[in-house]
Amino acid sequence: MDAQIRQKILTMLDQHRNMTIATLRPDGWPQATTVGYANDGFTLYFLCGLDSQKAKNLARDDRVSLAIDDDTQPVMEITGLSMAAHARPVLERAEAEKALRMLMAKYPEQDPPPPLPMPKPEEVRIFRVTPTVISVLDYTKGFAHTDLVTC
Fold it and tell me: Residue 30 class from Cβ within 10 Å (0-12 exposed, 13-18 middle, 19+ buried)?
């Protein structure tokens, strides 16, 4: 992977905290949901309810698509990331606690007051998202310009 593209992806991941993630429902239809995320390099973490539709969908099929972007005024300044990835549950307590700390750090305005209560790993389902393909959208390089990166 080109060093410049790598840095661009990492910068965009670090600058954002919300993504839209699509999982596959049992009937085959995609389900897109906006969730908060934190990243450790190219690895993303998000959490959801133990019995949420996302958790159920991912228990059947760990493939996801996701998008991270901004709402910019000038159309020719649109930038964003989309990924094809696998989302697998975090099972080790140490990794789960690390992911929770990283997620809470993305929302510093919540603490104080009132502090955002940090859930315990057993109260939520935490997923590790590992990209296989990343598409880097950058209209500043031309309408719909995209760099495709295989991980």
Answer: exposed
Q: Kindly write down the DSSP assignment for every residue of the chain, as one continuous string.
A: --HHHHHHHHHHHHH--EEEEEEE-TTS-EEEEEEE-EEETTEEEEEE-TT-HHHHHHHH--EEEEEEE---SSGGG-EEEEEEEEEEE--SHHHHHHHHHHHHHT-GGGSSSSPPPPPPGGGSEEEEEEEEEEEEEEGGGSTT-EEEEE-
Largest CA distance in the chain: 46
Do residues 45 and 127 touch, judged by C-beta distance below 8 A? Answer: yes
> Could you report the per-residue pLDDT of 72-85, keeping only the tens digit for each?
888 888 889 999 99
The two structure tokens encoding residue 150: 């295989």
Model pTM?
0.91
| DSSP secondary structure letters along 40-51 | ETTEEEEEE-TT
Distances (CA, A) of 43 to 85, 86, 99, 122: 10, 10, 10, 21
Residue 114: what pLDDT? 56
